[in-house]
TrEMBL record:
It holds the Pfam family LicD. The lineage of its organism: Eukaryota, Fungi, Dikarya, Ascomycota, Pezizomycotina. Residues 1-19 form the signal peptide. This is LicD family-domain-containing protein. It comes from Pseudomassariella vexata. Transmembrane segments: none annotated. GO terms for cellular component: membrane. It comes from the Eukaryota. PANTHER family: FUKUTIN-RELATED, RIBITOL-5-PHOSPHATE TRANSFERASE FKTN. One of its GO terms (biological process) is glycoprotein metabolic process. Keywords: Membrane, Signal, Transmembrane, Transmembrane helix. InterPro entries: FKTN/MNN4/W02B3.4-1, LicD/FKTN/FKRP_NTP_transf.
Length: 280
């Protein structure tokens, strides 16, 4: 696995290792009633599925539907180009990998993104790049003017723990948009069971064999170079089922094969589709 390579020229992002003062892990004292200690490092505003996908430290307000996909596009482009420039191996995972399978883009109903790294890479990031900010430069598609955004790479101090523990720290790191709190979840894979060599897993019980992950495949996602696991099709069907690769209507969106895009279904049409399914 590669950790450090000669730095590649960036086309979309420029990284700066500006250290951000570390924050203490929030903990609560165990009360007389025996409440458990809050060991969770990353916190979200909560309340609903959407509010569960912002980092509470940088959250201001919900990003509207029309704006959240472009914000996620900047997130993944900045992350992938920055990691590639640093020679750090990372690959698409979970729903983000599924979006790649359909059309190489983020699915419009997604609120966050998922990537994975090896435990060895995670250790390197924790020791060398934790709490660093990275600048991302791009051109506004409407005005054509140069724009700049800033992102934080934050490594969970619990990342080196082999077991799931109390389940509050299954996310090992995040790439966070400092302007709105949106993030990419980063999880580390390791051979956690000495009795099962060649089986890699995260703290959330997702398991992969070495031959399913490697050799990694080079591709593109949202217009920038990206890496995916070798057996991406098996990994997707194992996690989401075969229907995930053929279902053409989901979460209020319809797949349009001519456009190769998921299109939001108007509310009236969505209601008609639901009524039709109930009568069938």
């Amino acid at each position: 696995m590669r950790l450090l390579q000669s730095i590649l020229a960036l086309t979309l992002a420029a990284s700066s290792a500006t250290a951000v003062p570390s924050e203490s892990i929030k903990r609560r004292e165990i009360s007389a009633r025996g409440q458990r200690v809050d060991t969770k490092y990353f916190h979200e505003p909560g309340g609903d599925n959407e509010l569960g996908h912002y980092d509470i430290r940088y959250f201001k307000q919900k990003v509207p539907y029309e704006e959240h996909r472009p914000a996620l596009q900047h997130l993944i482009r900045s992350y992938l180009t920055t990691f590639r420039s640093l020679g750090v191996e990372t690959w698409l995972a979970h729903g983000t990998l599924l979006g790649w399978w359909w059309n190489g883009r983020i699915m419009p109903w997604d609120y966050d993104l998922d990537v994975q790294v090896s435990a060895q890479t995670l250790y390197y990031l924790g020791n060398n790049l934790n709490r660093t900010t990275h600048e991302y430069n791009y051109f506004d598609p409407i005005s054509g003017k140069p724009m700049k955004k800033e992102y934080l790479l934050d490594i969970n101090p619990h990342h080196s723990e082999i077991t799931r523990g109390d389940g509050q720290n299954v996310i090992d790191a995040r790439w966070i948009d400092l302007s709105n709190g949106m993030f990419i979840d980063i999880t580390g894979l390791a051979e956690r069971d000495s009795h099962s060599p060649g089986v890699w897993s995260c703290k959330n019980f997702h398991k992969y064999r070495t031959t399913e992950l490697y050799p990694m495949r080079e591709t593109e996602f949202e217009g920038v170079p990206a890496t995916i696991p070798y057996s991406f099709d098996y990994i997707l069907t194992d996690e989401y089922g075969h229907k995930s690769l053929v279902t053409t209507q989901w979460a209020g969106h319809r797949w349009e094969p001519e456009l190769k895009e998921w299109i939001k279904i108007p509310k009236d049409d969505e209601k008609k589709e639901e009524d039709k399914e109930q009568k069938a």
